[in-house]
Amino acid sequence: MGGTYTAWMFPRFSAALREDNLDRLGDCRYDVLVVGGGITGAGIALDAAARGLDVALVERDDLGSGTSSRSSSLVHGGLRYLAQAMFGLTRESAVERDLLRRLAPHLVRPLPFVVPDAGGRRNVALTGLGMWIYDGLASFRNVARHRRLSPTELVDRIPGLVAGVGNAGYEYHDCRTDDARLVLQVARTAHRLGAVVVPRGEVVELREARGRVTGATVQDRVGGREVAVRARVTVSATGVWADEVRALAGDPGPPVLTPSKGVHLVFPARDVRVAAAALVPSAADDGRMVFVLPWDGEVVVGTTDDGYEGPLDMPTVEQADAGYLCAAVNRAFGTDLRPFDAVGAWAGLRPLLASEAHLPMDSETLSRRHAIFDEPDGLLTITGGKLTTYRSMAAEVVDRVVATIGGSAARVRSRTDRVPLGLRGGLAETVARTAGVCAELGLDPALSAPLVDRHGDEAVEVVELAAAVPGGSEPLVAGLPYLRAEARWAVEQEMASTVEDVLARRTRVAIRDAAAGGPAVAEVADVLAGALGWSPHQAAASADAYRRRVAGERGVVPLAHPASADALTRG
Ligand code: FAD
Fold first, then answer.
1. Among 3.50.50.60, 3.30.470.20, 3.40.50.300, 3.40.718.10, what is the CATH number of 7-67+181-250+376-418?
2. Could you tell me whether strands 201-209 and 289-295 are parallel, antiparallel, or unpaired per DSSP bridges?
3. Which atom belonging to ligand 1 lies closest to the Cα atom of 389?
4. Residue among 383, 73, 397, 381 at smallest CA distance from 258
5. pTM higher than 0.85 for the full model?
6. Cα(476) to centroid of ligand 1, in Å?
7. Nearest CA to 101 among 176, 29, 168?
8. How remote is the CA of residue 351 from the centroid of ligand 1, in Å?
9. What is the per-residue pLDDT across 451-474, written as a single tens digit (0 to 9) for each?
10. In the structure, which protein residues have their CB atom closer than 6 angstroms to any atom of ligand 1?
11. 279-332 confidence digits (pLDDT tens)
C-alpha cells in the first residue's frame, strides 16, 4: 500500500522553516513585531499580514503553549455576562462566535448547552428572559434558538442528572473548538499571508532609541543566538506575562495584570452521562456554575476561577481545585468521583486587568475584558479578553498600529472577517472527498470526519501520509482518534519540535489519556529525532521533559503507569 504524500499545498511550516525565519528576523525593518504566539498574538499577526503589512511573530515557547491551550475551548457569547448587564461584550462575543463558525466550520462546532431549572419560579423566569436576550444579541442568527425542555427532554439530554436537580430546563447553543489547534491554524494562515513566524524565540530586551521602542532582541531558545529585530511598532500580546515584557522597557508603571487560575478535569464519558453540555450549580453554594462538556470519548468538567500568585509558567491542579469540581459533579450526577478517577487535568491562568480589580465584579467577569496600553512610545500591550473575541481584538490593535505607521497603510481596514481558517470548501463535501481518498488508498473512510475536524482541507494530505508510512493509519494511542502519521505531520507541517508540542497541543493526548500517551511518548520522540537529526540523548530528554511537565501540571491527578493506562481510561 502506498500513498502519494508529495503535494505540499502550502509552504512548509516545519521546524526547518523556523531556522530560516529566525535568519529572516534580522533582515529588514518590520512594520510590526508581535511578541507572544497565543491566540491574541497569532490573531494580530494574521490581521496585519492580511492588510499587507510586514509582520514578524515571535513566541518564546510553542505556539499556543500559554493560556491559549488551557482554556475551556468554548467559542461562546457568554450567557453569564448578562447577569452583569454586559450587553456589549455579549453582543461582540456572539457576533464573533457566528463569524468563526463560518470561517472555520471544522474547528468551531456547535454545542448545545442545557441549564436545568434551579432556585424557584422567579429564577426560572429570569433564565428564560436571559435566553431571549442572548438570542436577540446574536440577531437570532445563532445555530438555533433556545428552547424550553420538558422533563423527558431534560433526561434525554442529560441522562445522568439526579432527580430533583432540575425537573425541566432550557437549551441554548454555543460552540466548541480545540483551542491549541485554533491558535495553530490562525498562525499558519498568517504565515501563508507572509508573516514570519518564530516559535522558541524569546524577547529578552526591548530596543529603544530616543525614548521610543524600536524593536527587540530575540533569543533563539534552541540554538541560543540573539537577533536584533527592528520594527516600527512592537506589540506585546504576552497574556499573563505582559507585565514582565513591559518591565523590559525600563519603568513599566504599576502592574496591569492580576492572574486567576482555572482548572479542568477530564473523566471517561461513562463516568458522567451527558449528551449535551450541562451547567450545574457548584456544591459550595457560591452562586457559581460548573460545566460538564461532552468531548468525544471523554467529558470535561470546569472550571475554577481563583486569584493566583504562584509561578506563571507552571500552574498546578491542587486538591482544592479538583475537590471543588468533583463535588459539583457528584452532587448533580449522584456520582462518587475523586481526582484520581480523572484521566487528565489542566490548569490555565487568566490575565485579569488589575485596573478593574476594585470594581464590584467577580473574577469571572473581569477576565473577559481586554485593554490596550500604549506606553512607552512604540510599544502596544494588549491583554485580557477571550479566545472567542481574538479576531475583533486583533483588528482593534492593528487599527492602532496602522494609525501609528500612517501613510497608505492607515487606510486599509481589517480583512480577517473574510479569511477562511483552513477550510475553503464545505464541511460535508470535504469529509466526503477525504473519505473517497481513504477508500482509494485502502484506508477506512471513517477516518475522514475526525481528520477533517483537525486538519480541514489538509486532511487529504494527512490521509496520503498515513497510507505512505508503515503503520501510519494506526492509532497513536489506543482509544484516541489520532493517527500515528499525525505525529510526523505535526513535525513536518505544524512546526512541532518537542514531544510536548505533539502530545499536548497538535494532539490532546496529554489530557485525554491517563498515561498521557504511555508508549507513544517514545515513538513521538523517535519521529522528532528522525526529522530533526537528534541524538538518542536528545530524544530521551524531550520525552522526559514532557512527562515532567504533564505530571507537574496534573498535580493531584496522577499520571497512570503506561501498562495500566488502557484499564484506567477505557476499561
Ligand atoms: P497566551 O495564550 O498566554 O499567550 C501569550 C504568549 O506569550 C505565551 O504563549 C507566552 O509563551 C508568550 N510570551 C511571554 N513572554 C514572552 C517573551 N518575552 N517573548 C516571546 N513570547 C513571550 N476564552 C474563551 O473565549 N472561551 C473559553 O472557553 C475560555 N475558557 C478559559 C478557561 C480558562 C481556565 C482560562 C484561564 C481562560 C479561558 N478563556 C476562554 C480565556 C482565553 O483562554 C484567553 O483570553 C486567551 O487564551 C489569552 O490568549 P493570549 O494570547 O492573550 O495569551
1. 3.50.50.60
2. unpaired
3. 25
4. 383
5. yes
6. 28
7. 176
8. 7
9. 999 999 999 999 999 999 999 999
10. 35-41, 58-61, 65-68, 70-74, 76, 202-203, 237-241, 245, 262, 303, 348-350, 385-388
11. 999 999 888 999 999 998 899 999 999 889 999 998 999 999 999 999 999 999
